[in-house]
Amino acid sequence: MKNPWSWVPSLYSAEGLPYVIVMQVAVLMYKQFDLSNTEIALYTSMFYLPWTIKPLWSPFIDMYKTKRWWIITMQTLIGAAFAGIAFTIPTDFWLQATIAFFWLLAFSSATHDVAADGFYMLGLNEGEQSMFVGIRSTFYRLASLFGSGVLIMIAGNLQTLMKGSVKYSWSLIFYGLTGIFIALMLWHTRALPKPKTDKGLEGNISFSDVLDELWETIKSFFTKMPLKEVILATCFMLLYRMPEGLLVKITPLFLIEPQSAGGLGLSPQEIGFVQGTVGVIGLTLGGILGGVLVSRDGLKKWLWPMVFAITIPDAVYIYLSMALPDNFFLINACIALEQFGYGFGFTAYMMYLIYYSRGEHKTSHYALCTAFMALSMMIPGLFSGWLQETVGYRMFFIIVMALCAITFIVSALVKIDPHFGKKE
Questions:
Q1: 138, pLDDT greater than 60
Q2: CA-to-CA distance for 204 and 375, rounded, in angstroms?
Q3: pLDDT for position 126
Q4: Of 61, 101, 226, 283, which alpha carbon lies 20 to 30 A from 170's?
Q5: Where are the alpha helices (H) located in 362-420, listed in sequence order?
Q6: Which residues of 244-265 are buried (b: 16+ CB within 10 A; e: fewer)?
Q7: How many angstroms separate the CA atoms of 275 and 281, rounded?
Q8: Is the separation of the CB atoms in 119 and 67 below 8 Å?
């Protein structure tokens, strides 16, 4: 068996980078291409769909070929999607073409996630899985930092060097990503081990058998608790992050929008530093602290501090939209505070998904929970741009802050075992 250090970091970098490109980098790119906020939020929120419905085709990844084959094939398709975006950006039909290639990127990336997570459990023994869980998370975060920070700063510098040629600078960025994924695919054809257990299902297993198993999984997901508790749990999964679902597409637009239009007027280089570096560090530190405290005292004890943490810092955007500060240090401090609170508060959400998934079909139920998680971001995001353009940035952030009450309500209604989460 090959050394896990040769493939775990690169595999989870390959998992994290396409996601951040689809969900964050595309937002800023389209803003520089002069699309309206309504269009940007609508188009990019629809890209959540593959991550929402990926449990529907995950059984076929188990049934056909090996997970190693799926990983290498999807990395090839991801590279092709990046190449398609790069090639079509300078054309007259750039909007339709880039959206089509982003869809290919999103579906390939979501499929890659399923295969990679499954391969992780096959390619490592239990001890190695425990040892490398932090490593894989770290490299996923580093890939996010690279995508939402370094790449955006490089795009800004290219625009300066090329005297404002926005489309060609972004085209070069995506050609660079194509090269990265070709290199990752070639590396993984050599570095990924070939576990004996990594094989398609054997025996007389038909397409209808897989559909029956999928139906049983979905049915058991909605009948594992009394109906009232299932409804409350589903509401929690869909509504806990509603304010964040509204914010996530609008905040980068607010940061780059000129002050004359109600934004902060930051350059791409500054946005890359604020969101991709300071923001990611704050998010990571908040998540680490949340995990430590839950493992010590349990989820129930820290639920309410985490609810406050994920909602109250949203008020920084009300302040920023009112003050429109020029002080770059102050802007960084505000974003760091909001992201730290989000990272800390998001721990409660992730732990609740694990809590609900306990019991039989644990893995399949957790996949369904993450589908609800993606849906909880997709639905608010679809109309966030329209709402912002209708009421303006300041009133939009006030509305988001008011909707934080929904997070408090669903958190008050769910039931959690007081001992859940404590490290034995």
A1: yes
A2: 35
A3: 67
A4: 283
A5: 362-413
A6: bbbbbbbbbbbbbbeeeebbbe
A7: 9
A8: yes
